[in-house]
Amino acid sequence: MIGILLLFYKSRIMYSQSPGPVGIFDSGYGGLTILEKIREVLPQYDYIYLGDNARAPYGTRSYDVVYEFTRQAVSKLFDAGCHLVILACNTASATALRTIQQRVLPVLDPDRRVLGVIRPTVEIIDDLTQSKHVGIVGTSGTIRSNSYTIEIGKYFPHITVTGEACPMWVPLVENDEFRGPGADYFVEKHISQLLSKDPLIDTLVLGCTHYPLLEEKIRKYLPPEVRIFSQGERIAESLKEYLYRHPGLRRQITRGGTCRFWTTESADKFTTSATLFLSRPVQAETVTME
Ligand code: DGL
Predict the structure, then answer these.
(1) Which ligand 1 atom sits closest to the C-alpha of 142?
(2) Would you state the torsion angle of the CA atoms of residues 168, 172, 177, 182, taken in this order, to the nearest 10 degrees?
(3) Which residues contact residue 169 at a Cβ distance below 8 angstroms, ignoring those fewer than 6 apart?
(4) Is the CB of 93 under 6 A from ligand 1?
(5) What are phi and psi for residue 47, nearest 5 degrees?
(6) How many angstroms separate the Cα of 164 from the Cα of each of 11, 49, 149, 206, 210?
(7) What DSSP character marks residue 259?
(8) How far out from the chain centre does Cα 272 lie?
């Protein structure tokens, strides 16, 4: 209760009603794969990318911890003037999005929006699968939450969903080992475990924003007829449609085509590693969250 009152007090004194950038949040670098696609489709807007690199990975953390870190990130981006925040992280979307939308937003500012990456993926899944058997690879947190199974079940109860937690995949990417033989071992292991649980899978959702970097390896161990679905383009298209349907929110986004990169770790470290995801250098700033 005291927490809620403090949030309310903070909202009354902090948030400007002027337009601001779109906030894109991820635990680390993975959300950059989503940011890239969003900027391709909506290049006119300003963005702030926030990576909580000092506390990543989130995938093996408990629900309460991921929720609290995500709430802090949303609050930080609202403080920076964002009216719209995208949780470009499946783990945060699976664990914290609903509570933030239902309990935090009404208190902080009911006119601001926080969107995730799971719903847009789920909405189109029926068009992707012929066999109606879908596999989801994700972090332990995402798979444990059962979010994909629950959400797909609501829209398309005829689809069978099988999840596989791949806890080593994010560290392989974050440590630039995703092209090496260690990656082959862990990719082959989880793909074969998934297919042994359901051999009828014809669509594999990369339910973690880090995984597109492993796509080449994943392709190597999947039967050729299984389609790999990577979320970036879909999230970008879905955001474009959303903003088309919400002109009031659209007017609250500044248009300059800029992107600032914020990290809770060292700015130099972020700058070096972000190149793996973006294939061009960026200039990052270190920020704190609480
Ligand atoms: N990239 C995040 C996701 O989409 C997870 C990375 C992490 O474990 O922090 O789930």
Answers:
(1) 10
(2) 10
(3) 137, 186, 187, 190, 208, 210, 211, 214
(4) no
(5) -135, 150
(6) 39, 28, 12, 11, 15
(7) E
(8) 21
Question: What tokens were used for 274?
Answer: 């972000």
Copy the structure tokens of residue 158. Answer: 């005829």
Which atom of ligand 1 has the smallest separation from the CA of 207? Answer: 4
Helix (H, G, I), strand (E, B) or coil at 251: coil
Mean pLDDT for the stretch of residues 42-58 = 97
Whether the predicted pLDDT of 5 surpasses 60: no
CA dist., res. 254 & res. 21, Å (int): 6
Contacts of residue 223, defined as CB under 8 A and 6 or more positions apart, other chains included, come to 195
Residue 208 annotated as catalytic: yes
The reported pLDDT for the residue numbered 16 is 77
**Three-class DSSP category at 164:** strand
Distance CA 227, CA 203 (A): 5
Report how far residue 10's alpha carbon sits from residue 31's, in angstroms, rounded to the nearest whole number. Answer: 28
What pLDDT, on the 0 to 100 scale, is given for residue 276? Answer: 81
Task: Report yes or no: 176 and 273 within 8 Å, Cβ to Cβ.
Answer: yes
* Residue 18 CA, ligand 1 centroid: distance in Å: 31
By alpha-carbon position, which residue is closest to atom 2 of ligand 1?
89
Q: Give me the mean pLDDT over the 127-150 stretch.
A: 97
pLDDT (mean) for 45-61: 96
